[in-house]
Specification:
220 residues; alpha/beta; 8 strands; binds NADP nicotinamide-adenine-dinucleotide phosphate; single chain
């Protein structure tokens, strides 16, 4: 399994944890040359059975009236165009192996919220991309799966959103009993991919029990 991200040292740590199961490939999916080099390495390794488009995130939480165009551009480059770039490059190989394109989008791509226009718009776009690809691939030996998580307490998502403001990042999860963990989403990915090739888990929406919607969250 190839694992892609920009920071090689974190990938190396992952590879040490998981042993030979992981081939670390440092790449930036917003950069054409870097992504092509990564894809060339992947394709040289043999058939490709699944692409998990996970790299993504929110940058900023400002109202439309005052949001930073640079923040929006960065979210579109990563969430929308990065996902498109990876998908386009691996689609031929995935078709050859009855493979799967899986997208980790978000409930932000289902229900928009104040301050979230840029992130929500990019996640709506990701979900639409997955939906349309699914329609376009009907009859082809390929599955397209969308997983839309709600609140997941990961290391860096909220830190990135709030430009490194640790207090604002911590407030997102304050008092919420058991937000989802990365492992919960990984289990959804594993389950969807482990179905027979002819069973397409079209869409999974997964939230912590304490979250009814982005704006309806139980806090102790
Ligand atoms: N956390 C949540 O509440 C939540 C909820 C719903 C959906 N999601 C979605 O789930 C996905 C994962 O989020 P997360 O919470 O795990 O965020 P995270 O902790 O910030 O992780 C993002 C991952 O993407 C990689 N990445 C970022 N930019 C990249 C680039 N340009 N090229 C290659 N890799 C890149 C990062 O590694 P490097 O920085 O080393 O590149 C990191 O491994 C995202 O698409 C996010 O929108 C998250």
């Amino acid at each position: 399994m190839a694992a892609l991200a920009r920071r090689a040292e974190r990938l190396d740590t992952l590879a040490q944890e998981l042993g030979d199961a992981v081939e670390p490939i440092a790449a930036d999916i917003t950069d054409e040359t870097s992504t092509q080099a990564a894809v060339d390495t992947i394709l040289a390794g043999g058939p490709v059975k699944a692409l998990v488009n996970c790299a993504g995130g929110a940058i900023g939480k400002d109202p439309v009236a005052t949001a930073s165009i640079d923040d929006w551009r960065a979210m579109y480059e990563l969430n929308v165009l990065g996902t498109l770039r990876m998908t386009q490059k691996l689609l031929p190989a995935l078709k050859e192996s009855s493979g799967t394109v899986l997208v980790i989008s978000s409930t932000a791509g289902i229900e928009p919220y104040e301050g979230g226009a840029g992130y929500c718009a990019s996640k709506f776009a990701e979900r639409v991309m997955a939906r349309v690809l699914r329609l376009e691939m009907i009859g082809e030996p390929i599955r397209v799966v969308d997983i839309s998580p709600g609140m997941v307490h990961t290391d860096e998502f909220s830190m990135h959103r709030f430009h490194g403001d640790a207090a604002k990042a911590a407030a997102v999860y304050a008092g919420v009993p058991d937000p989802l963990k990365a492992e919960d989403i990984a289990e959804c990915v594993r389950w969807a991919l482990d179905q027979p090739d002819t069973v397409d888990i079209d869409s999974i929406v997964v939230r912590p029990r304490a979250e009814g919607s982005y704006t309806k969250v139980y806090r102790k």
